[in-house]
Amino acid sequence: HWDEYVATSRTLNEVLTRLGHPAYRLYESNWGTLNEAFWEAEYESSADIEARFAAARKDPEFEAALNANLSHVVDGETRDYVLSEVVE
User: Fold this and answer.
1) How far apart are CA 45 and CA 87, in angstroms?
2) Partners of 37 in the beta sheet?
3) Residue 35 to residue 19: CA distance in whole angstroms
4) Is 79 helix (H, G, I), strand (E, B) or coil?
5) CA 57 from chain center: how many Å?
6) What residues in the chain have per-residue pLDDT under 70?
């Protein structure tokens, strides 16, 4: 499913940017667990993420792109993290 996942990721990213989300970067694991993907994007805050996705869920094109993408993901293996830079 890897090539299909990458293709649906590209489509999902295009829909998200059309809806005002920042462009996501897609990374793959080259060592360890193969065919593992990581997405990265920069948002202003957790509230910004929540608001943008609440609006996106109202868009049928987003729902279709998300469902197509998730059809290539192993159930129970998706994790979301909101990371913050450590400032000393």
Assistant:
1) 16
2) 28
3) 28
4) coil
5) 14
6) none
- Cα 70 to chain centroid distance, Å, stands at 10
Q: How many CB atoms lie within 10 A of CB 79?
A: 6
- With residue 68 as reference, give the H or E element that holds it: helix 60-70
Backbone angles phi, psi at 3, to 5 degrees: -65, -40
pTM for this predicted structure: 0.86
Phi, psi of 38 (to 5 degrees): -130, 130
Query: Residue 85 is encoded by which pair of tokens?
Result: 């830079």
Closest CA to 8 of 59, 56, 78, 65: 65
Decide: residue 24, CB within 10 A, 0-12 exposed, 13-18 middle, 19+ buried: middle
Partners of 27 in the beta sheet?
38
Could you please report the per-residue DSSP string of 9-31? Answer: HHHHHHHHHHTTPPPPEEEE-SS
Say which amino acid occupies 25: R
